[in-house]
């Protein structure tokens, strides 16, 4: 079975990502309590506590993250927080608990199916200090210098214009505001057939930047005090006996050893920077 080749233009890539994650949202809607079978276990592996997992509404956790930006625990009562690519709302709800009733969380997502789930989850849980806005992370529907902190969980790698994402983040943050993200980077280039694969792109690998390029992009947007607070091998959150891994091996005609080698080039980073 041949994997589709990802498109070239930025608009086409965004459309591909939007459709891919709409399918994730729709798949979750057919599961019991709106919870995908693998979601809870994946979330445990990447650092969410049992208390956090129990505190978010059913269906908010889709298991598509690569880390937990709110684990940094620096969000303070009364702060305004933006979640880039908020999905079904898991991190936005955790952030809302941290900033309390005097604070506010704005989740931004471009996928209607995700926004619908997030808003439904907010309504079910009675969470009134969070809102979900439609928009892209390259052109945020947020006023300039109005935000204290930005979080994002395994989303920026999906953007074909990461420089615009970080410039927009810089624009909306107040002076002294901070950005805390979990994301995927590459330690070395991957083969062209992987980088051009739609499935690899939607799996947060095909669109990932080299570590050095990614960090330079943040600095060139104007951020200071850019630092890595935690990193982990991507394989820590992936079961190599997962049927999807086997399917990818068949699709690309590669061995398990090659899969391990490719995944060794992929790292999940937790990053912090200040405006």
Within CATH, the superfamily carries the name Vaccinia Virus protein VP39
**Overall SS class:** alpha/beta
Strand-residue proportion: 15-25%
C-alpha Rg (nearest Å)? 18 Å
CATH level-two architecture: 3-Layer(aba) Sandwich
Helix fraction by DSSP (H/I, runs of at least 4): 25-40%
Q: Which regions are unreliable across 5 or more consecutive residues at pLDDT < 50?
A: 29-36
Dominant shape: globular
Major β-sheet annotation: 8 strands, mixed
Q: What is the ordering of alpha helices and beta strands?
A: HHHEHEHEEHEHHEHEHHE
Quantity of strands, as a count: 8
Furnish the topology, listing elements before pairings.
Layout: H1 10-29, H2 39-45, H3 50-55, E1 80-84, H4 90-99, E2 104-109, H5 112-125, E3 130-134, E4 147-153, H6 162-172, E5 173-186, H7 192-195, H8 198-202, E6 209-210, H9 211-220, E7 224-233, H10 243-252, H11 256-263, E8 266-274
Parallel strand pairs: 1-2, 1-4, 2-3, 4-5, 5-6
Antiparallel strand pairs: 5-8, 7-8
Helix pairs in contact: 1-5, 6-9
């Amino acid at each position: 079975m041949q994997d589709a080749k990802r498109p070239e233009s930025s608009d086409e890539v965004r459309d591909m990502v939007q459709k891919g994650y709409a399918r994730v949202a729709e798949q979750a809607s057919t599961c019991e309590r709106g919870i995908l079978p693998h979601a809870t276990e994946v979330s445990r592996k990447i650092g969410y506590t049992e208390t956090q997992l129990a505190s978010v509404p059913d269906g908010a956790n889709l298991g598509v993250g690569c880390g937990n930006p709110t684990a940094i625990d620096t969000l303070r009562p009364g702060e305004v927080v933006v979640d880039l690519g908020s999905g079904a709302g898991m991190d936005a709800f955790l952030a809302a608990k941290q900033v309390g009733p005097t604070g506010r969380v704005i989740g931004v997502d471009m996928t209607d199916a995700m926004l619908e789930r997030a808003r439904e989850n907010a309504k079910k849980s009675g969470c009134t200090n969070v809102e979900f806005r439609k928009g892209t992370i390259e052109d945020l529907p947020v006023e300039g210098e109005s935000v204290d902190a930005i979080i994002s969980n395994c989303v920026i790698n999906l953007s074909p214009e990461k420089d615009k994402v970080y410039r927009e983040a810089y624009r909306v943050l107040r002076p002294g505001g901070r950005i805390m993200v979990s994301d995927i980077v590459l330690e070395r280039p991957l083969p062209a057939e992987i980088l051009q694969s739609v499935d690899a792109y939607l799996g947060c690998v095909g669109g990932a930047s080299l570590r050095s390029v990614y960090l330079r992009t943040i600095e060139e947007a104007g951020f200071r005090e850019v630092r890595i607070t935690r990193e982990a091998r991507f394989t820590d959150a992936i079961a190599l006996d997962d049927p999807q891994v086997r399917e990818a091996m068949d699709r690309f005609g590669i061995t398990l050893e090659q899969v391990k080698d490719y995944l060794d080039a992929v790292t999940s980073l937790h990053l912090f920077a200040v405006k």
